TrEMBL record:
The keyword Transport does not apply. Its cofactor is Mg(2+); thiamine diphosphate. One of its GO terms (molecular function) is 1-deoxy-D-xylulose-5-phosphate synthase activity. Gene3D superfamilies: 3.40.50.970. This is Probable 1-deoxy-D-xylulose-5-phosphate synthase 2, chloroplastic. SUPFAM superfamilies: Thiamin diphosphate-binding fold (THDP-binding) (SSF52518). The gene is LOC111485034. Transmembrane segments: none annotated. PANTHER family: 1-D-DEOXYXYLULOSE 5-PHOSPHATE SYNTHASE-RELATED, 1-DEOXY-D-XYLULOSE-5-PHOSPHATE SYNTHASE. Keywords: Magnesium, Thiamine pyrophosphate, Transferase. Residues 1-150 form the Transketolase-like pyrimidine-binding domain.
Amino acid sequence: MGLIQMLLSRKIAEAERDDRIIAIHAAMGGGTDLDYFQKCFPDRCFDVGITERHAVTFAAGLATEGRKPFCAIYSSFLQRGYDQVADDVDLQKLPVRFAIDTSFMACLPNMVVMAPSNETELMNIVATAAAIDNKGTPLEVIKTQINPEITYR
């Protein structure tokens, strides 16, 4: 099982416990494996189409209302929405969780950037991200198998 599938499985487990957890993607349900989340929670998964900037602002709006949005957007597309990440999420210290390549978000002062090195860490950081209510949380997720023997980077 790769990190994407593990992230999805942990998100589903968290969503079963907390009905404030929302998933958002920009026409990438298959690529982010959120199609299955959509089947489990049809009223809590939103495909906003090819509008990455809107996905970020939508997630920020949900966060202001007490929801716990997880945004799955490819970083190559999210670059167009970087202003929304900086202004709508980081500046306001809103708890939006991003499941992406996080390198370009590390420079934002109010982000808690997390990158798991193994399956156990991934499970723990999803739970931690769901619990953070005062900052954005990008989660580094790669679409490859991981070696369970490696415990650090």
